[in-house]
Amino acid sequence: MVLGEIGKAKRKLLKLKSMEIFCKLTLITSICLARIGMGAFQSIFGPTLLYLADKVDSSVTNISMITTGKSIGRLFGSVIGAILKNMTGSDFKHLLLHGGGFFILGVLYLSIPWINKYWLLAVNYIIAGIFFGYLSTSLQAFVLQTWGAKSSATHIQLYHLMYTVGAIVTPLMAEPFLKESSKTKPAEDSCPNSIINISIITTSAPNISTTSSLPAGFDQTGMAYIIVASYLFFISILFAVISITSIPDKVRASISDRGYTAEQRMVEPFRNLIWFFLCVIGYFCFIGSDSGLFENYIYAVALCSELSFSVSQAAQIGSVFFIGNGVGRMSGVIVSNFVKPRNIILFGVFGSIIIMVLMSSFGQNLPWITWIVSVGLGYTTSMLFPAGVSWVSEITDISGKYMFVPEVGNAIGNLVMTPVGGYIFAIDPFSVVYMILGACVVTAIMFAFALCYGHRHKAAVVAGANVEITNGNNCTTYGTFVAETDQQISGDIS
Question: Taking the domain 13-256, which CATH number applies?
């Protein structure tokens, strides 16, 4: 009898462990697939730029402005996401909203092949930007809340790695459709006459005029949007399923059983964090400038400056950057288990400065250095955003109403620095390299200020909480956070 009871208990325990593993893998896989979809959603625009310009009978200049509208939408969406997160409360409602957001993105992209008016396309992308901003911030906040500030570093790195996977795979998926619908002349190895044409040469059909008429009906390139939309519909169904089956609640319960803590800290008043958040927004703003400027302008710099690359060589530079970016984010998934987010940031910040000093000093005289710089900058900047999120979450809770802070910084960087880069390029193409170096230096400065205010804030929180505990107030959860924070301060200072 006793042996039988022991056997039943073991089988029950094994069943519970199997279910626990299944729930964790399901949740992590769902988040990864969703993030791949977000990368696909973002990256499909560049290769199909000419297709969109011809479809709505507009210039490439006007079509390129749509990206600005989408960035503004992302800015509003990130704030709206924080509001909705506080209103929904439960994971069930929150994940259903995620599923609804992916469904709406799918509808918006599914409609693009049949849109033939510029203003409709612009409105489409602004609305899409709002939902993308909401999903980007709230899904990241969900990861923080599920695994907690201390245990989520690896998951945040994986979260951003999957975005890169989607950004790399989607142009490859679109390439056959682009070739099928292309009825244009061969590209010429020449520099465009204006910065406006940079958007043209970054696509799969460089230096091609958009004045050629395409059939008014359905174009093969539209299939790329239909495939992305279908994938987004699949993600919406997946999130509906995991919300109905309460998988996130089961995962959080298993995490708590193993001694890990989900995000349970009290939300601090904004007045206590304003100076810290200003530095953090600046940090995320210039991170986007580091990688965004290089990604957007390296093709044109390689083609139009004294580097004198051919079109094919210049196009490969961008691919090399994304390879470095992908390898860096894969490294981040592993390294974040052993290295503190602060140290990862320091490596990325100073590594990017050294690389851009190398490019600024020797790039024009030794063109082969551009290849090393491209992969190196992609690698060093790849971990800055996810490590920044993890580090800020150690200082204060950004999984709730403050979850918009990183996205706001990123959106401001894209809105401001990209047009400034175009102005600098028009004066001297290689000067964009100096601008990227400056952005790397400012990133270091902003992080130094954020580090300073972060230490001050943690010290103030510890001091204030200890007073409350001494006075006998009920601060069990907060006291636990204080103990962890006190330990972090000692580690940071040492």
Answer: 1.20.1250.20
Burial class (CB in 10 A: 0-12, 13-18, 19+), 188: exposed
Type of residue at 398: I
Q: Which of 2.60.40.1120, 3.40.720.10, 1.20.1250.20, 1.25.40.10 would CATH assign to domain 271-494?
A: 1.20.1250.20
Angle subtended at Cα 17 by Cα 14 and Cα 22, rounded to the nearest 5 degrees: 125
What is the spatial distance between Cα 221 and Cα 205, in angstroms, rounded to a whole number?
13
Least confident stretch, 223-232, 292-301, 376-385, 397-406: 292-301
Q: For residue range 174-201, what is the model confidence (pLDDT) as tens digits?
A: 778 777 766 543 444 445 444 444 433 3
d(CA 443, CA 30): 33
End-to-end CA distance of the chain: 57
Condensed to tens digits (0 to 9), the pLDDT of residues 467-481 reads 554 554 444 343 334
CATH 1.20.1250.20 intervals, the chain: 13-256, 271-494
DSSP string, 51-104: HHHHHTT--HHHHHHHHHHHHHHHHHHHHHHHHHHHHH-SHHHHHHHHHHHHHH
Q: Contact at 8 Å (CB) between 187 and 203? A: no
Residue whose tokens read 């500030």: 149
- Helices 247-257 and 2-43 pack at an angle, to 10 degrees, of 120
Angle between helices 405-427 and 118-151 (to 10 degrees): 130
Burial of residue 4 (CB within 10 Å: 0-12, 13-18, 19+) is exposed
41, 167 Cβ separation under 8 angstroms: no
Of 243 and 312, more confident: 243
Region 302-323: what's the mean pLDDT? 74
Q: How far is residue 72's CA from residue 76's CA, in Å, rounded to a whole number?
A: 7
Weakest mean pLDDT among 14-18, 283-287, 470-474: 470-474
Q: What tokens appear for 219 in the block? A: 């174009």
Is residue 312 pLDDT above 60, yes or no? yes
Type of residue numbered 179: K
pLDDT the model gives residue 36: 93
Helix (H) or strand (E) holding 297: helix 274-304
Q: What is the mean pLDDT of the chain?
A: 76
DSSP labels, 253-287: HHHHHTT---S-PPPPPGGGTHHHHHHHHHHHHHH
Assess contact for 246 and 130: CB atoms under 8 A.
no
